[in-house]
Amino acid sequence: MFAKDLLANKTIIITGGGSGLGRSMATRFCELGASVVIASRKLEVLTKTAKEITEQTGGKVLPLELDVRNYRDIERVIDRTVDELGLIHGLVNNAAGNFLSPTEHLSHKAFDAIVDIVLRGSYYFSLALGKHWIAQKQPGTMLNIVTTYASTGSGYVVPSSISKAGVLNLTRSLAAEWGPKGIRTNAIAPGPFPTKGAWQRLVPDPAMEKQITERIPLRRLGEHGELADLAAYLMCDGSGFINGEVVTIDGGEWLAGAGEFNFLDRLTPEDWAEFSKKLKR
Ligand code: HXC
Ligand code: NAP
């Protein structure tokens, strides 16, 4: 899909890059010539992932321990990246936490747990790297991984929904404020992409996966390569005039859920013949 050197000589930090979609983006960026830092809490997972990505792509992957809730950790990751890989060109705020629960069952601390990772963590990393880039008079590209419900809201994932809405707003706010300094900020809003982290917590049984798949107009779930390619495009110089945008990648799911009459896709041709008799021409 892309020239093989699309991201050559770029260094990109991916929070939560040791698993799931973060890992898939790290792999794709390396295939396209980037050096990548993957950073999250579990150093053992990161180290294994880094080794596997390097074996697969030949790319340079630096695994660094990071808790995005800790600002000092973030500053340390930025310093280590500069020391070991040189200039930083991009950041993907991908780390997240989530769970499925009726809101009235949640403790107040459960809200804090998610907001601290998703909203505070994304803000902290954007702030620390923004300060660094601005001080160095260096351009840069940020990409925030949100969700489709960042715009629509969603029941049963309220702490995540509120946090992702905040990150979407952060995307648009910084795009305007830091655009003049050469810093672009965009977001991707994925629909469902199977990952261990999300599926264990949100889609624990096959019947639920089937239900989700059936409401997507394309009648399938997302493939990691599709999201990784979109991320690569938004991180590369060719997308240089895109700033403050959120790109939805969900097979048409949220629009199908919103359109008043879209539920009629359940009618068979026979149902339609019967139903049409009731409609005034
Ligand atoms: C209700 C829960 C809970 C659950 C924890 N809590 N899990 N409440 N349901 N399943 C509550 C606890 O009781 C506690 O409150 C508070 O939250 C903090 O819990 P900890 O276990 O101490 O939190 P912590 O160790 O910080 O772990 C964070 C985590 C965990 C979010 C709870 O699941 C995690 O580390 N997740 C990271 C990976 C992840 O979630 N990936 C999925 C991303 S998918 P009290 O009051 O008892 O102290 C995604 C979008 C998917 O984001 C969209 C799909 C379409
Ligand atoms: P995942 O594999 O569970 O990814 C979450 C990552 O966040 C993990 O690598 C985790 O690593 C890291 N993380 C969690 N808390 C952290 C903290 N305090 N500090 C640093 N890192 C932390 O799930 P995923 O599905 O790939 O999700 C990736 C992104 O896509 C998330 O932003 C998610 O909201 C978004 N998304 C996913 C879907 C989907 O269908 N999969 C849909 C919409 C949006 P450690 O445990 O090592 O810290």
Question: Brief description of this entry?
Answer:
With 281 residues, the chain is of the alpha/beta class. Helices cover 49% and strands 14% of the residues. The protein has a seven-stranded parallel beta sheet with strand order 3-2-1-4-5-6-7, sandwiched between helices.
Q: How would you characterize the overall build of this protein?
A:
With 281 residues, this protein is an alpha/beta fold. The chain has a single domain, classed as Rossmann fold (3-Layer(aba) Sandwich), CATH 3.40.50. α1 runs parallel beside α2, α1 crosses α9 and α3 packs parallel to α4. The radius of gyration is 20 Å and the shape is globular. The N and C termini lie far apart (48 Å). The mean pLDDT is 98. The chain binds hexanoyl-coenzyme A and NADP nicotinamide-adenine-dinucleotide phosphate.
The average pLDDT score comes to: 98
Proportion of β residues? Answer: 5-15%
Percentage of helical residues? 40-55%
**CATH-derived topology:** Rossmann fold
Low-confidence stretches: none
The secondary-structure element order is EHEHEHEHEHHEHHHEHH
CATH homologous superfamily identity: NAD(P)-binding Rossmann-like Domain
The overall number of domains is 1
CATH class identity: Alpha Beta
Distance between the termini: 48 Å
Outline? globular
Treating each run of at least 4 consecutive H or I residues as one helix, how many helices?
A: 11
- Which ligands accompany this protein? hexanoyl-coenzyme A, NADP nicotinamide-adenine-dinucleotide phosphate
Rg value:
20 Å
Query: Which structural class do the helices and strands define?
Result: alpha/beta
Spatial order of the strands in the main sheet? 3-2-1-4-5-6-7
CATH architecture: 3-Layer(aba) Sandwich
Largest sheet: 7 strands, parallel
Count of strand segments: 7
